[in-house]
Write the structure tokens for this entry.
Amino acid sequence: MVEVHTLGTGTWRRIGYAPYCSSKLKFATYLNGFLHWISLDFSKLILIYCFDLGREEFKSVQLPPLG
């Protein structure tokens, strides 16, 4: 379950569940209003996820082509 804290309100809101939280980065990377991280799913497939801070939504990012 993911909870978001709004500064100045002292409250937390539940916004749903995060996709695969087993991150391969020590910290998420912030870029253009999104937090990005690399994960492995249950089948060991490498995935990139991001969290849109404005819309408070999780999204997946297509991996760049190999080679």
Summary: The chain has no helices and six strands. The CA atoms of residues 34 and 53 lie 6 Å apart. The mean pLDDT is 84.
